[in-house]
From TrEMBL:
PROSITE patterns: HIS_KIN, PAC, PAS. Keywords: Kinase, Membrane, Phosphoprotein, Transferase, Transmembrane, Transmembrane helix. It is an enzyme of class 2 (transferase). The lineage of its organism: Archaea, Methanobacteriati, Methanobacteriota, Stenosarchaea group, Methanomicrobia. The keyword Transferase applies. Residues 114-185, 243-280 form the PAS domain. It catalyses: ATP + protein L-histidine = ADP + protein N-phospho-L-histidine. GO terms for molecular function: protein histidine kinase activity. This is histidine kinase. The chain crosses the membrane at residues 7-27, 33-52, 59-78, 84-100, 121-141. Residues 388-592 form the Histidine kinase domain. Its EC number is 2.7.13.3.
Length: 608
């Protein structure tokens, strides 16, 4: 409520004084009422002085003057000692009242200023601070408490703390504990976790501490509680514990053995599979330090080379290496117990990049290695028999071709034609044997690619067909391939000759393309129908010509080109004219070392 204007206050005080003086005179002089009773009408004057506050001194003198004037105007026996004494009394009373009023106001302002200062101190605190009076009402709460609870300060002051901030399930226990503290039966509780509920119903976990508040007489007036919100920390810790439990369960149930070591090689943890692996060697407990392995195991490579301790997988990891797929044969010293393990491992680093532990995994591949060795042995035996068979069949084919050539010189007519068919069948048998040998080499472990002189390969193939018109104007180009690259040109050129007319013309081009080369083998033969092109490179897919083979040649070509990291396609030599010849185009990668580029190769014209 806004204070009244000064003019209004003076007016009201004047009315009170005038009424008081008139009533005093009337009761005392006219009605002959006792002086003591008439003095009660000085009370409004005293109240007016209190109300006016700091102007009390002026009021006192003003009142005294009015009383004297009133006596002079209303009485015949003016100027008596009683009148002067009454005036002095008004002055003294007004002075005392004004002094007391001013002191009380000053004390009130000091108290308010100290309260505001204390509230400011509380508001800058990062924790919830609340004063709970003995009647369980909230006497004071800081800004952080309001923010945490979700209320304004005026919504909290005076309300029951337990009804507002304590979850219902804990409310009665909290009331009883508070009552014991306020009654002095129990001391303040030690620091503990406490749960509060916010305005929107969320629960927060606080580190809670309470202290008993006492008045000037020593009586307990309430408690001061402080709480730091640790909800997110508790939730993060719980999530971390859950994650650790999940990881521990995953690690423990891995089929691969896993060991965790400190940087000195001391094991920190072995999972179930690791303990079982050591049990295969007759050990009840896994070894301690990495140095203990030297007395228990011998580590060798798969070819039997003994590994010194500094080359053991764990030693390499502790040096900072990251290992993967390291196959080591492990034998228990003094026994015939032996296993083959595939090792992997790395150092684990903290957020700053400093290593603090090593992790090593190992998988028992003894059975797999045994199967691989047995398969390799069987494959070697099969290859031996196949080599013998290919050798003997080729010898028989060579003899058959030789005799057919001799007979062809002495025979005429139908007999000569039959000899030519026999010779064609033998040639087809030779082609089949060659394709089978090529496929066998393709199925063998892929050797690393190496630089191959593409120009030399092409020119060697051209020399095999001197009777055919093959046009090629190339330059030295080195590509990544292996010894089977000639098979690509043998099949493509051979197909063009087989399916083309006697006067077929073949053109071979090599062009630079995106860091590699594009090779084209084009012919003027009958071409390839569009419906055959999508499946032409599939296994056992033959063309529609009566001269089609067994469907392996182009399948081998695609396998080889893919093996070299390229791709192959078939197109019409003349776009839109399938019957004007075919064009096989495939890509190869250039080797790292390349000759200086020569001028672009001019396109080799083919007859239309």
């Amino acid at each position: 409520m806004a204070p009244l204007p000064e003019t209004i206050r003076i007016f009201i005080v004047g009315i009170l004084i005038g009424v008081s003086v008139v009533l005093t005179y009337y009761f005392h002089a006219v009605l002959s009422v006792g002086a003591v009773f008439s003095h009660f009408f000085y009370i409004p004057i005293i109240l007016a002085a209190l109300w006016w506050g700091r102007r009390g001194i002026s009021v006192a003198f003003f009142l005294g003057g009015l009383v004297l004037i009133s006596h002079f105007l209303l009485r015949t026996d003016v100027g008596t000692v009683n009148d002067y004494g009454r005036a002095v009394m008004f002055v003294v009373v007004a002075l005392v009242i004004a002094w007391l009023s001013e002191r009380l106001k000053r004390q009130q302002k000091d108290t308010e200023r100290e309260r505001d200062r204390a509230q400011g101190y509380l508001d800058v605190a990062a924790v919830l601070l609340v004063v709970v009076n003995a009647d369980q009402t909230i006497g004071l709460v800081n800004r952080r408490g309001c923010e945490l609870l979700g209320y304004r300060e005026d919504e909290l002051i005076g309300r029951n703390w337990f009804d507002v901030a304590i979850p219902e399930r804990n409310r009665e226990d909290a009331r009883r504990a508070f009552a014991r503290m306020v009654s002095g039966v129990a001391t303040a509780s030690p620091t503990e976790e406490n749960v509060i509920v916010t305005k929107n119903g969320d629960e927060r976990i606080l580190i809670w501490k309470e202290a008993v508040l006492r008045g000037t007489n020593g009586r307990i007036t309430g408690t001061l509680g402080s709480g730091k919100d640790i909800t997110e920390r508790i939730r993060a810790q719980e999530a971390l514990r859950n994650r650790e439990a999940q990881l521990r369960t995953i690690v423990e149930n891995l089929n691969e053995g896993l060991g965790v070591f400190d940087l000195d090689g001391n094991p920190l943890q072995w999972n179930r599979a690791a303990r079982e692996f050591f049990g295969l060697f007759g050990l009840e407990n896994p070894p301690g330090n990495v140095s203990d392995f030297d007395d228990l195991f011998e580590f060798t490579t798969t070819d039997g080379t003994v590994l010194p301790p500094e080359e053991w997988p764990l030693s390499r990891v502790l040096r900072g290496e990251q290992i993967r797929d390291v196959e080591v044969r492990t034998r228990r010293i003094g026994t015939d117990l032996e296993r083959v393990f595939n090792y992997g491992g790395t150092l684990v680093r903290d957020a700053g990049g400093s290593p603090f532990m090593a992790v090593v995994t190992f998988t028992d591949i003894t059975g797999r290695k045994g199967a691989e060795e047995a398969l390799l042995s069987a494959n070697e035996v099969a290859n031996l028999y196949l080599d013998i068979m290919v050798h003997d069949i080729n010898n028989a084919n060579a003899i058959a071709l030789g005799y057919s050539d001799i007979l062809a010189e002495d025979l005429e007519g139908t007999n000569r034609g039959m000899i030519q068919k026999i010779r064609s069948a033998v040639s087809q048998s030779i082609e089949i044997i060659q394709n089978v040998s090529t496929i066998r080499r393709l199925r063998s472990p892929t050797p690393p690619l190496k630089p191959v002189d593409l120009d030399a390969v092409i020119r060697a193939e051209i020399r095999q067909h001197r009777e055919t018109d093959i046009r090629y104007d190339g330059r030295p180009v080195t590509v990544l391939a292996d010894d089977l690259l000639p098979e690509v040109f043998t099949n493509l050129v051979g197909n063009s000759i087989k399916f083309g007319e006697p006067d077929v013309v073949i053109a071979i081009r090599v062009e630079d393309q995106d860091g590699g080369v594009l090779v084209s083998v084009e012919d003027t033969g009958p071409g390839i129908p569009d419906e055959v092109k999508p499946t032409l490179f599939s296994r056992f897919r033959k063309g529609k010509s009566s001269k089609s083979g067994k469907g392996l040649g182009l399948y081998i070509v695609r396998m080889l080109v893919t093996r070299y990291g390229g791709s192959i396609r078939v197109e019409d030599r003349v776009p839109g004219a399938p019957d004007a010849g075919a064009a096989f185009r495939f890509t190869l990668k250039k080797a790292a070392r390349e000759e200086p580029e020569a001028p672009a190769i001019p396109e080799v014209p083919l007859p239309v």
